[in-house]
Amino acid sequence: MARTPLLARCAAAALAIATLCGPAHAQASDPLATLSPEKKAFLSDPVVLTRFGLTAEKLQVALAGRSAADVDAYATALMAVVEDSKYKAGRDPSEIALNPQARGWNAGTTVRPKMFDKLKRDDGPFSLKRYQFQKGAIPTFADAPVAIRKEDLVAGKVEVAFVGVPLDFSSGWRDAKHAPMALRGMDGLVGADADGGIDPGLVLSIADYGDLAPDYMAPDRGLDHIRAMIAEMASVGTIPFIVGGDHTIMFPDVAAMVDTYGAGKVALVQFDAHADADLNDAHMISDTQTLTRLMEQNLLRGSDVTLVGLRGRGADVATQKRLTDSGVRILSTAAVTERGWQAVTNDILSGLKKGPENIFVSFDMSVLDPGDAPASGRPVPGGISMREAIPMVRQLCAQTKVVGFDLLDAAPILDPTYVSRMSANYILHACLSGIAMRKTGMSVETAKR
């Protein structure tokens, strides 16, 4: 059977992927017809094909003109690769060895006793400034006073507390661990919101709760501590504003909200170019499967999840179908482009009315176009703009009961300019403005006038 040059090139590419070569012979139009039922089912499985970078069409091209023996060998080789990649007891370790005899096993998460404070003070947030009107000092989020214990949050009646989680863990381009430090030193979190018509710093009691301590040698080991500390903040009525760190952190953040408010009583709005809903990764937790674990552990129901800004290679058809079948609502970047940010925001708000009143917002910097945020750990071209993201976040935080917010996957070293850091802080400020508007009873319509 004659081939066009294009088909010949496609066939060569597909065969290179499978690393199988052999003589080409004329064959029936369905190259799978001569296979056993088991092998035919294997090569017809979309999950298997996707794993090898194939589709049903590419497979047909790869097998066109090959003999029945070659096709059988092809299937056998792929099945062997799949089998060899599985965990094998006795061959593969199922655990990463730790040393429980270490004297400092929990040294990284041991809170310093209050009695060790050399500065005797009343409970409550305290300023790090030397001068009364000093604009530059030891940097804090939103230029806010510092709180280091739960008692400080209670005594200060802190409504919003920023906390850094400097964790590099998973698949992104590294440097998310420096985001809390970088954003503290950047403008954009202080002052009035011209479009919101309010200065959140004058309306809300805000504090910087410092950084939580991840375990850099075994990051997954530190997630329980992060979860407990975020839950502690929420337990006294403070809204945690968590600055990561990569998107793995969404797991302990949302879990902490469920620990505080109860299962089935928290909804998630996830702004993200990626679904973070992968299956069958070798590690049980990572930024590519955070949503998977939250749903598997019944911390979230699919109907209580809204994904905003999905696009690119992390949004394949099979993943989207699996999520929507479970009840997840997906509002893609294309929807924002085609219908406008206001229409999509209205859809988000309309959907949230049907679920729990407690809303957690997770904002991954990848949802933004790289032009507005080049320092995203997993950038994807063609994202929403800051002009769209700011009013969406502001309105969401103004018209719902936001109980927590995280901003994740900012990787400062990837952007030698100030753009990404400023964009990140303006997103945080937009939600602060929304919460302040909700507190004062100011409507979005009023702010527009």
Can you tell me about this structure?
The chain has 17 helices and 8 strands. The protein has helices at residues 5-18, 37-43, 46-51, 56-63, 68-84, 150-155, 179-184, 200-203, 223-235, 250-261, 290-296, 317-325, 333-339, 341-352, 386-399, 419-440, 444-448; strands at 160-165, 206-211, 239-244, 266-271, 305-308, 329-331, 358-364, 401-408. Strand 4 (266-271), helix 11 and strand 5 form a beta-alpha-beta unit. Helix 9 crosses helix 10 and helix 15 (386-399) runs parallel beside helix 16 (419-440).
- pLDDT averaged residue by residue: 88
Poorly predicted residue ranges:
1-28
Radius of gyration: 25 Å
The tally of helices reads: 17
Overall number of strands: 8
The topology string of helices and strands comes to: HHHHHHEHHEHEHEHEHEHHEHEHH
The chain-level structural class is alpha/beta
Content of β-strand = 5-15%
The N- to C-terminal Cα distance equals: 71 Å
Helix content: 25-40%
List keywords for this structure.
single chain, 449 residues, alpha/beta, 8-stranded parallel β-sheet, globular
Brief digest:
By secondary structure, the protein is an alpha/beta fold. 38% of the residues lie in helices and 10% in strands. An eight-stranded parallel beta sheet has the order 2-1-3-8-7-4-5-6, sandwiched between helices.
Helix and strand arrangement:
Elements: H1 5-18, H2 37-43, H3 46-51, H4 56-63, H5 68-84, H6 150-155, E1 160-165, H7 179-184, H8 200-203, E2 206-211, H9 223-235, E3 239-244, H10 250-261, E4 266-271, H11 290-296, E5 305-308, H12 317-325, E6 329-331, H13 333-339, H14 341-352, E7 358-364, H15 386-399, E8 401-408, H16 419-440, H17 444-448
Parallel strand pairs: 1-2, 1-3, 3-8, 4-5, 4-7, 5-6, 7-8
Helix pairs in contact: 1-4, 2-5, 9-10, 10-11, 13-14, 14-15, 15-16
